[in-house]
Structure to design on (76 residues):
């Protein structure tokens, strides 16, 4: 796997907090940040899937409701 470097600017408070939390978990700062970003990505993806599922469910419900009136069509 080819590693890519990501870089960003962080305020001193965030950097110090990150270092302290990484140390408390026995991790290097880079590993802590990598894990945190991975977890955030998973959360955002789960939220996106939930939103799409809700939209699709509403569309299916509306379609099914539109068909309900036609269930008896042609049946006497």
């Amino acid at each position: 796997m080819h590693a890519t470097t990501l870089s960003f600017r962080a305020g001193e408070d965030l950097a110090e907090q990150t270092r302290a939390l990484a140390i408390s978990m026995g991790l290097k700062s880079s590993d802590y940040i990598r894990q945190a970003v991975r977890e955030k990505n998973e959360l955002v993806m789960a939220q996106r899937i939930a939103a799409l599922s809700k939209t699709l469910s509403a569309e299916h419900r509306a379609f099914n409701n539109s068909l309900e009136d036609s269930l008896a069509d042609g049946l006497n």
Residues 29-68 form the longest helix (40 residues). The chain has a mean pLDDT of 91. The helical segments are 12-24, 29-68.
